[in-house]
Amino acid sequence: MSGGQRNTAKSGVILIITVAAAVLTWFTQRAFFIPLLFIIGFILLIVGAQTLEAWQQQRKAGSRTGGKTKGKGKSAQRRRATQRRRQEKPGTARGASVEAPRQDSEGMQPGFYGMVPRVFLPGASDDKPKRRRLTRRDKQRMELLPPDATVTLAAERAETDVDELFEALDRELVGLVPVKRKIEEIAALLLVDRVRQKFGLEAPRPNLHMCFTGSPGTGKTTVALKMADLLHRLGYLEEGQMVHAMRNDLVGQYIGQTAPRTRRVLERAMGGVLFIDEAYYLYRAADPQDFGQEAIDILLQVMENDRDKLVVILAGYQDRMEEFFESNPGMRSRIAHHIDFAAYELGELVAIGRGMLQESRYYLSEEAEETLREYLTQQMQQPEFANARSVRNEMERARLRHAHRLSTDLHRNWNRDDLMRIEAVDIWAPDMFSLSGAGKLAGPRGNE
Hints:
3 domains; five-stranded parallel beta sheet
């Protein structure tokens, strides 16, 4: 018996007892009849409400039971219909494309519209379908060009915007013709490889680890930045960032510090380029307790196993890098491209200085340019001369002298050209320049 039925039975018993009490009161004492009627009416009202509530609950329970039964019947019918369709087409897997595959006339791998059948994806199986996103290689296989198609490298260069990168490289770097030619060769290899993949002509990924050798200020860091951008545009690096590191970023001072430091730097560089400046300082043969060899071993492992995710560029003086490679032959074998950055000539250094001033809306007068040539001729003989870096420092000092010269005459009227023109006195003040016996600059200019 349900809860509603029990409530109805209780209410009926109470009603019978109340009616019997009312009849008995009628015969014994009629004075209590009217209040008793009110009691009976109240009880009848309660009984009616309980009966109505029990009826509504029973109705709702019956509707839910019937709805579930009907839903289960429909679900069973759908499952049976699906099983019959699978029996008619045993090759169709769950989650397959709604459209039939397009079979190539030459028996090549079929392409599909919409979602790719899981049974055709690498790593999937018929008995346990797996969901995963399409990789770039899967998309390339689906979009392969037919064998009789044709492509142009000009269209591919336009799609990757590599021409814009080469224009910026020519604009920002003066000279370095052999370096730029080497970069163009690497770009051509990767561009042709990119086009070959569209026809399904896959080849092993080329080794792109590099070594930049040359004096300071010859553009090694700038070229490394451009190389990271180039590899990213051609699809060989996912991120395209460049992480600059030196010995202190990789090698620790105590036991247990080197490996975590090196791995943190490698994690930051994954998907881009790791540029290690003055890489020969990683190895110190004179110190048997040095931890640099531990960092080198980790680098060698990552350069080999993760070369599709990371490009390592080592930089430093050419003679010292040769000593480093002789001490670590495993590192030399993993470097595919050795690029030498030759020192700038005098005319190239003057052009670099002229370009730096133009970016700041200054220019050299004829006398100032001739004075700059004389000054750079003297500076190029110094062992600490840093090519473009030294030229940049001199141009900054020229701007300071120019501003000081103008500010000493506060009441003079200066025009726009005066505010832009660098004079010879701003480059080289005769009373500030003299050569000491050691061949170094003396006086205030020599201490700069």
